Amino acid sequence: FLTVVREHAAAVLLVAMLGAVTNVLAYTIRGYFNVFFEDVLSYALNVAHYYTAFALIIMIVLLPLFGIIADKVGYSKFLYIVSILIMLLVIPSFILMTDPSRSLWKVGLGILLFSSLAAAICAPAYPYAIQVFAPELRYSGVAVSWNLGIAIFGGSTPAISRFLSEKVSISAPAYYVILICILFILASYFTRHHRR
After folding, report:
1. Are the C-beta atoms of 22 and 122 separated by less than 8 Å?
2. What is the mean pLDDT of the chain?
3. What's the Cα-to-Cα distance from 113 to each of 22, 56, 183, rounded to whole Å?
């Protein structure tokens, strides 16, 4: 563990930020959407559950498709493209989900868009993370780094999203997603010379 952190800090940072960006999107769906739809947007509990279930189903169905695409395009390139798409499309997805008319089509489109982005960033994450470390360091390197990113950024996503929706705007959780995408891209850029 200490050897990985001491001698491969750049790889640890990169995989931690990858774990962060994938889990911020996934935890938004799994840990925040119910609260978002029920408490923030005042939908009935059963409607909040339907919307969250729809988001999860879309994500699950699209994961293999995006995995196949990432295999063909290349993991690094695919993650860069998806990160940029997330930064461009996450605010429109929240705008659609928070539509004042509560149009099922707009809310559904917003959920579909957000879940598609989540599936796209999550699909190639594990194979990419494994490639960052040499074979003799993979288990400890990925385990430490990935879980560090989840613990610091992913696990706190529902609380941060709730805080932002109360203090800034109901679409403000999108800003947190964008921030984490920027941090991942920066970590990837600045660690590019330290990868295997």
Report:
1. yes
2. 93
3. 15, 12, 22
Closest to 41 (Cα-Cα) out of 97, 105, 119, 121: 97
Report pLDDT digits (tens) over 29-51.
Answer: 999 999 999 999 999 999 999 99
Contact 37, 46 (CB under 8 A): no
pLDDT digits 0-9 by tens, 67-78: 999 999 999 999
Higher pLDDT, 112 or 130: 112
- On whether the CB atoms of residues 108 and 55 are closer than 8 A, the answer is no
Q: Return the HEC string of 83-97.
A: HHHHHHHHHHHHHHH
Question: What is the reported pTM?
Answer: 0.93
Residues with Cβ within 8 Å of 111's Cβ and at least 6 positions away in sequence, in order, are 51, 54, 55, 58, 93, 97
Kindly write down the DSSP assignment for every residue of 45-84, as one continuous string.
HHHHHHHHHHHHHHHHHHHHHHHHHHHHH-HHHHHHHHHH
On whether the CB atoms of residues 40 and 165 are closer than 8 A, the answer is: yes
